[in-house]
Amino acid sequence: MKVLNHLLVVFLTAAIFTSCGEDRKSDTEVPGRDESTKTNVLETGSNLIQTKAPFDPMEVYLVGFHPMKQDPGHQMEAHHFCTQINEDFAQCVLFDGNTEDARLTGIEYIISERLFETLPEEEKQYWHPHNYEILSGQLVAPGLPDIAETELMDSKMNSYGKTWHTWSTDKGDELPFGDPMLAWSFNRDGEANPELVRRRNEAMDIDPNEKREQRKELISKANPQEGVDAIKDEFPGPTELIPGVESKKGRDSVQ
């Protein structure tokens, strides 16, 4: 109860004195005509009258990176806006930024280790592990105070995500072209494109090394995960596991 009360005070204080983090705008210009007066009026009316209930509980904001499983060199910055359905399941909408002009690039479902273990074996190949993203400091919750962010990351330890990207705005695609792409997670130092990470960190004033240090206390809670080795041989340079990230053998060989 003391922890919950402390977190409540932290959240209330943060709500008064901070924003949700630095703006990260989309670079993608979508072809098409300017909105007409009729469209603007319809939007205004809809905003006043129609429900937006499914969006109301999207209270969790996370930013990380996704390599595509079949093409790990294709890597995207992903802004997750998530609804926590229950303690074991969350659903997220993915954008290429956090401003009103952000483009919707995909979806992600997040499940606990407990739910992952109930999946059929054939289904598990679609779900990527999250421990490296958390322990490395790559995955962040912009704007949250450190203590609250660490508690949020604690709740996602040992979890898995199923992610589909539908629009490669990072490649300059003006429209959502081609098939949906199954995304994966980075699981070793040296896998993520350093320039991709640097741009995000500089734009949003994020220090991943500081995040990694703050999350050392979570290492003891990490369990071996399936999928850690799924794309490990697809990167040109040397890569390295970090403490707390361990492959659960038996599944990775068939990813």
Word description of this protein:
There is one protein chain. This protein is an alpha+beta fold. The chain has one domain (2-23, 55-254). Strands 1, 2, 3, 4, 5, 6 and 7 form a 7-stranded antiparallel sheet that branches. It contains 7 helices and 7 strands.
Question: What are its keywords?
Answer:
255 residues, alpha+beta, 7-stranded antiparallel β-sheet, 7 strands, 26% helix, globular, disordered N terminus, disordered C terminus
Radius of gyration, in Å, reads 19 Å
Low-confidence stretches: 1-19, 250-255
Number of beta-strand segments: 7
- The assigned structural class equals alpha+beta
Distance between the termini: 42 Å
Strand percentage lies at 15-25%
* Largest sheet composition: 7 strands, antiparallel
Total count of domains: 1
> Which shape, going by the Cα principal axes?
globular
- Helix and strand succession? HHEEEEHEHHEEHH
Range of helix content: 25-40%
Mean pLDDT: 85
User: Helical segment tally?
Assistant: 7
